[in-house]
Amino acid sequence: MAVVFSKPKSLTDREFHYCPGCPHGIIHRLVAQAIDNLGIEGRTIGIAPVGCAVMAYDYFACDMVEAAHGRAPAVATGIKRALPDRIVFTYQGDGDLASIGMAETVHSAARGENITIIFVNNAIYGMTGGQMAPTSLPGQVTQTSPYGRDVATQGYPIRICELLSSLDGPHFIARVAVNNVKNVNQAAKTIEKAFRNQVEGKGFSLVEVVSACPTNWGMTPSKALAWVSERMIPYYPLGVFKDADEKEDRA
Amino acid sequence: MSEKVLMKGNEAIAEAAIRSGCRFYFGYPITPQTELAAYMARRMPKIGGVFLQAESEIAAINMVYGVAGTGKRVMTSSSSPGVSLKQEGISYLAGADLPAVIVNVQRGGPGLGGIQPSQSDYFQATKGGGHGDYHLIVLTPDSVQEMADLTGLAFDLADRYRVPAMILADGTMGQMMEPVVLPPERDAAVADKPWAVTGTENKRPHNIINSLYLAPDVLEKTNDERYARYAEIQAKEARWESWMMDDAEYGIVAFGIAARVAKNAVTHLRQNGIKAGLIRPITVWPFPTSAVTGACARVRAMVSVELSMGQMIEDVRLAAEGRCPVTLCSRSGGMIPEPQQIIACVERLAKGGK
Asked: Under an 8 A CB cutoff, do A75 and B96 touch?
């Protein structure tokens, strides 16, 4: 029988613990596929966050490190400085990267560390059961914004790509989504580019992946994907926010 | 390589670290350890090493965690308020069994405190400091020479036991200049570390640096395994100096700058006809319990001399096991006890006072 579909070899055989309908599985696959395509599994070191992807260290077949909440970019900085010929990536959620780890995110970007960051934005804290995230939308109901996020008292969501692209340090900043086949294909290309940039020594590359959390949004998986198109993407527009390659081309 | 040079304690630590094969340093400015970071900033780029001024002490300790995970020798330094910020990362280092060296050039606290010398982070350094069941190996130099010597030892012990080690110094040790014989240059290639994350090269299963164990029985096993190593460290690595203790009737326990003042006091007391002696812990974790317990069976009283409101005295009392009275003689907030204060304290005890 012909094999028509297989798992990237950069993923282990461990079963994912993610909820039904959670896009983390797709995003893990895209990351592993990029690593496979570039043939870098043997020299890649990944860093797992605190959040739903905390056990990503069991899923990626490369060497892995579990970081403290928000500190993955600092840990990645240490590893990359110690082993400059290794490929170092972090995989982080919105609470991890945009709230508790904001300083590490901004400063690793400002230093232009030659690392790759995969930032999964699902507008909620999933692991702890659905609290308001720094990226929760205005009016969004969560466990800690039960009457909807009130911007007067709870502030506005943070657009990470727009914020980081104002810095001189980063090489590549882009936002993708995984809510339909077209967007998944685009995400695959963008994630691979973010890894290739590091292989080519170009510097800090971050890909924000607009994701979904059916469980904590209280929606069916298909309704959650519709919510991504209708509510998330209008607030978090997809595209490339910074690409130093293009700047060089224009110059 | 045995030339004697005049150096500040902070600089002696930095140079000794480099000579012990450390090529990675991450820090954040804070008084009174600044010279250490400045020295690293000058030296590291010249020898192919890394100096990085992090955005915070939190980031610095997590960069240390990253390098330690790759198996390379790495150091960070700070002073009391900054070391408090590092506690989360130190707990993770301990939980992931990563060797690294952390330097605390202590200043007075709590809070922002002051910038004068102190030993008031003793509890934090020896009893954990961060969350969870763990210990650091804690070394306490009393001279610029020991600042250098104990730094090399800290790296060796950290590697041998996969336990983070701390140099618990104070502002005086950091700032004072003394002649020092620096250790010889050693190769950066150290102990075999098959657990390190270096890339699998597709030749071995992946290594994972981690402190998360959701199954409680598994987490308990990792703690049991770590505490077996701690027991070995307690049995083998306690270090102390016993000074004029053989015939002593009054014992003093003091480390770091307090021990130097105490030696002065012991000399004066003996001139005055009171047989005093000093036990100087060189490691405060493991605490030299057996030395103190043994001495407590022979002396009339023991005095804990500290630059704090009384922290090490708890370990002295535990070691005394009720064999003799234990008294505190201390200053805090950045003040240093004078020999006269210690002499008066021991003389009071000799007259039957408390």
From this structure: no
Predicted complex ipTM: 0.95
Q: How far is B230 from chain A (nearest CA, A)?
A: 24
pLDDT confidence band for A1 (50 / 70 / 90): confident
Tell me the domain boundaries of chain B. 4-200+223-236, 240-350
Mean of the per-residue pLDDT values for chain B? 97
Domain B240-350 grouped into CATH 3.40.50.1000: no
Q: How far apart are CA A44 and CA A33, in angstroms?
A: 13
B4-200+223-236 belongs to CATH 3.40.50.970: yes
Handedness of CA A63, A68, A69, A75 (dihedral sign): negative
Residue B270 DSSP code = H
Contacts of A47 in chain B (CB under 8 A): 66
Secondary structure E strands in B174-286: 177-181, 208-209, 240-243, 250-253, 276-281, 283-285
Name all domains of chain A by residue range, CATH numbers in brackets.
24-250 (3.40.50.970)
Q: How far apart are CA A242 and CA B244, in angstroms?
A: 70
Contact A194, A244 (CB under 8 A): no
Q: Per the CB < 8 Å rule, is A65 touching B209?
A: yes
Q: Are B286 and B234 in contact (CB under 8 A)?
A: yes
Distance, in Å, from the CA atom of A205 to the CA atom of B233, rounded to the nearest integer, reads: 44
Reported as a single tens digit per residue, the pLDDT across B136-148 is 999 999 999 999 9
**Which of A47, A81, A92, A111 is the best mutation test for B, with the most CBs of B within 10 A?**
A81
Yes or no, beta carbons of A64 and B206 under 8 Å apart? yes
The pLDDT of residue A248: 63
Q: What's the whole-model pTM score?
A: 0.97
Residue closest to B318 by CA, chosen among B140, B138, B133, B126 = B126
For B303-346, how does the pLDDT look when each residue is reduced to its tens digit (9 = 90+)?
Answer: 999 999 999 999 999 999 999 999 999 999 999 999 999 999 99
Cβ contacts of residue A149 below 8 Å, gap of 6+?
A: A132, A136, A137, A138, A139, A140, A141, A142, A157
Q: Which of B94, B103, B42, B86 is nearest to B68 (CA)?
A: B94
Give which of A13, A71, A113, A114 to mutate to test B binding, by max B Cβ within 10 Å.
A71
